[in-house]
Every structure is written in structure tokens, then in C-alpha cells.
Amino acid sequence: MSDAPWWRRAVIYQVYVRSFADSDGDGIGDLPGVRSRLGYIADLGGDAIWLNPFYPSPQADGGYDVADYRGVDPMFGSLADFDALTDDAHRLGLRVIVDLVPNHTSSEHPWFRAALAAPPGSAERARYIFRDGLGPGGDLPPNDWQSVFGGPAWTRVTVDGRWYLHLFAPEQPDLDWTNDEVGDEFESILRFWLDRGVDGFRIDVAHGLAKDPALPDIAGGHPTSGPAPAGHPHWDRDDVHEVYRRWRRVADSYGRDVAFVGEAWVDSPVQLARYLRPDELHTAFNFDFLLAPWDAARLRSVIDASIEALAGEGAPPTWVLSNHDVVRHVTRYGGGDIGLRRARAAALLMLALPGSAYVYQGEELGLPQVTDLPDEALQDPTFLRTGGADRGRDGCRVPLPWSGDAPPFGFGPPDLGVGGAVPGVGGADPWLPQPAGWAGLTAERQASDPRSMLSLYRQALRLRKALPGDSPLAWMAASSGPGGDAVLAFRRGPGFACVVNLGDEPVDPPADVGPDARVLLASGPLGDDGRIPGSTAVWYGGEG
Ligand code: GLC
């Protein structure tokens, strides 16, 4: 076994707390709910969990509007619940990663309240980015920046007519990272959670934080969201790196294996690698992989570019197919039967690659995006700020189906069905409605079906543990003949090969796989002739 740090090859299970498991029947997932289901994640084969924000928050953006960085929202439990969860996770061999949101606070954070109560030019205002407006009376925003969620990135305060910057919702004012007080506060927050025993931090909007001090107009020259091109006035600026150097010194001072994972939507793997210099973050999400279409050539070039750019810094690549911000990949890959087949194959591809991988809760059940949530159920600020033009991200955040034949599918406590089986308590509906058709997708149903998505993930994660974590990927030539250019085939050391047929037609395994190779796992049934059907991945072992 390799003695490399855990984060170089971990499978990290992303827990969207609000939608994972509800312990008290209020329709909202919570930390005791997560705790009660940790065994499921351990059985699945996860090495770590990443918890989306559970801090006190008005929930204007699913908890990414933090009002208190050192607490737990009563809706999700208490600090004691967090400690109990962390202890149990550690006992089960699961590391715990928490989400850190440094680009902005909630408008309900005491700092922002104090800023509104204080005069322009005060120390309280200087923690945020307040500016005078343009035009007569200062009625126009200070520049043309747009919020990622739609509409202007500036909101005017009524007290004195000045404007403040928010790259996301108005309830998420951006902090001014040139202010030393901000840096000191975040060091203290890091220490707070490290002292409680966390193993890492997922850093929200890691490519934000630093802004061009001149706040120049973008003038249509740069997109507001998506990968940040060079020279952008508020994304991926050089100054952010100094923040991560400081954080790395803090993490290293704890003398244990703490890991950072950055959420940085940048232009290229080369830009991403700059966040992973040896004195900065340990890892970062690889959104190029997530964004790549179901196409062998495109995926191969993303895989190569990612591995190569990160190796230059000695950082491991990471792989992710879904998260709480994007359309679930079953749906992205075409939905229905074809989407499922491709998602199964994609899982085997992702889990065979060197480095670490992320599994977003529910992908192991093959959950699709819920595209028909009623308007009145939608809560994502994107939906509200675009006047409904963008339906937002709620469709990938629907509470998990655990068991039973009807909603809430065991999402709530066993004795609290919808409508409330316990007098005086009542079981509220899950905060987003679950499709009735999910009866066939519950964890309970899938656990006993060897052909289910859940069984595939379980087997893959178990086999993956035996893979040589550090051994590099070596591409193999696909078999010649029709369909060969839709095949990705690679070896990890002499005893393991992965072949993915992304096309529609069956193909022969590459000649390199050899006649003695054993099929360890396949994402779908193989022909008797050993050919690999379309949209199918196979892991081979044991060949010479
Ligand atoms: C990140 C989060 C997303 C949130 C945004 C603003 O992209 O993943 O959910 O809306 O940051 O904090």
C-alpha cells in the first residue's frame, strides 16, 4: 500500500446536507440525519465526506450566504451534532471536509449589518466593497459587472445611496480581501474548524476574492460566469494566490494531513495548476472533465491536459461528474436509458483514472435531474433573479430516495411519513418534492439488485482500493476497425486496464488487453464474444 497522503487518491462523497437525510421530520436534511447514514457512505466505499454549508444562514443561496462561520444553523442541528458526526465519521474511517465561503458573507452577517449602520469611509464599511454610483445623483451602478445569478452585481443601500458589490445574490456582499481584517478573520475561522478535527476544506469560489482595484468595466469583454479568461477584473487574479499561501501555512502547522480542494472555474488546466503550487492548495475540482461532452477525443484531451498540467506542480488530478450546481450527468449525457448507460460507463472511467474522485450524493443511485419541479417549489436565486428564464439548480438538489414506495422515500425519520404519523410533531414534506417515479431508484431497492447503479458503484469503489494509486495512466491503442475512434483504453500498471466504448456499435477489446485478461467489472452486459457494446466500460485485470 502506498503511504501517500489520503487526498491524493480519495473518493470523496459530497453530502448536500439539506437533501441527504432528515432526522427530525421538518422536511429538511440535517447533521444528525447525515450521522445516521454514515454507514451507507462507508459501505459504498467512500474515503471522505464533503459537507455543503450547514452554518447559520438565511438560505438566500442554499447556505452559501453565511451569517456565522463558527456555528451550525438550528435547522441543521448544533455544534454538538457536528462533533458527534465528525467522531462517528472518523471511527468509520471517513475524513470530513467542510465548505468555506470566503468571497462573500451573508447580508445578515454581523459585519455587514455593522457596515450598513456605519458611515461611508468607516472601518466597518471597509470590510466590503462600497462605492459611489455613477451619473447624476449616483443613480447608476459603479461599473457594469453582472451578478452570476443575473442582474447587476451592485445593490444600492437606502441609508446613504452608496452601492455595494455582490458577484452573486444581493444577500451575498463581497468581502474586500485587501483589508487585513478579512484575512485575519478567515485564518481564525480555519483554525476554529481545524481545532474541531476537520480534515479539509472545500473553498467556495476560490478564483474570486481578488478584484482589480480600479474596478474597470468589463464592457462585454469577458463572460460573467464559466471559465475565467486571462485579464478578467474579478476572476482568477494573481492576488488570490497570496491568500492560499497563508492558508497552507496554517494547515501545515497542524501537523496532520489536512487537504484543501478549491472550486476554481478557470480557463485551462494550466491556470488551475497555479492554485496547486506546493505552497498553495492541495487539490482543485476539474471542471473541464465535468464539462466535456460524451466524446472520446474530447475526454482524452481533457484527461491528458489535466494530468500533465497538474503533474508539473506535483498535484494529483481530480475527477468529478456532478455536484449541487450542475445538471446531473445522467441527464447531461442524454437522459433516459442512454443517459444511464453512459453514466454507468462514465463512473468506471472516472474511478479508474489516477488521482481522487468526487461522488455527488445520488449519482450512485443514478438519479436524473428533476426538470419538472413546480415554479412555486423553486428556491434557487438564479431562478428568481432571471425572472424564471433560468430554472436554476434545484433539480439536482432534490432529497434522496432511501426506501419505500412513495415520497418521502425514507428521507424523513421512519415513523414520520408525510402528513405526520407522530401526533404533535408532523412530518413535513421534503423541501423539494421527489418524483413518484423514484420508487424504483431507492437505495433500499438498489442494494439488493446486483445490476443496479448502486451495486456498480459499490463494486467499483471496492476494486478501486486495490488499484495502484500512484501508477500513471498509459493509453493503449484501440482495436482497429469500425468504432475504434470512439474508444478510450488505458492501463494503470501491468495488472489493470480500463476500456470505455463511447460509441453506439460494439467493438473488440484492444489487442493489448490480451486473451488472458479477466473482466473485473463491466458497466453493462458484454456479448458472449467478449465484444464491448456501445456506451459500456470494462475493467480488466490479471493479464500479464
Ligand atoms: C459556488 C457554490 C454555489 C454557490 C456559489 C456562491 O459556486 O458551489 O452553490 O451558489 O458558489 O457562493
Keywords:
single chain; 544 residues; alpha/beta; eight-stranded parallel sheet; five-stranded antiparallel sheet; 14 helices; 16 strands; 24% helix; globular; binds alpha-D-glucopyranose
In brief, what are we looking at here?
The protein has helices spanning 31-36, 38-44, 79-91, 110-117, 180-195, 240-252, 269-273, 287-291, 296-311, 329-332, 336-352, 381-385, 443-447, 453-464, and strands at residues 11-15, 48-51, 95-100, 130-131, 154-156, 163-165, 200-203, 259-262, 283-284, 318-320, 356-360, 473-475, 487-492, 496-501, 518-522, 536-541. It has 544 residues and is of the alpha/beta class.
The beta-strand count equals: 16
Which sequence of SSEs, written as H and E, runs from N to C? EHHEHEHEEEHEHEHEHHEHHEHHHEEEEE
Assign an overall shape.
globular
Bound molecules: alpha-D-glucopyranose
Structural class: alpha/beta
Low-confidence stretches: 416-425
Number of helices: 14
Please report which band the strand proportion falls in: under 5%, 5-15%, 15-25%, 25-35%, 35-45% or over 45%: 5-15%
Estimated helix fraction: 10-25%
Mean pLDDT: 94
The major β-sheet equals: 8 strands, parallel
Lateral strand order in the biggest sheet: 9-8-7-3-2-1-11-10
Radius of gyration: 24 Å
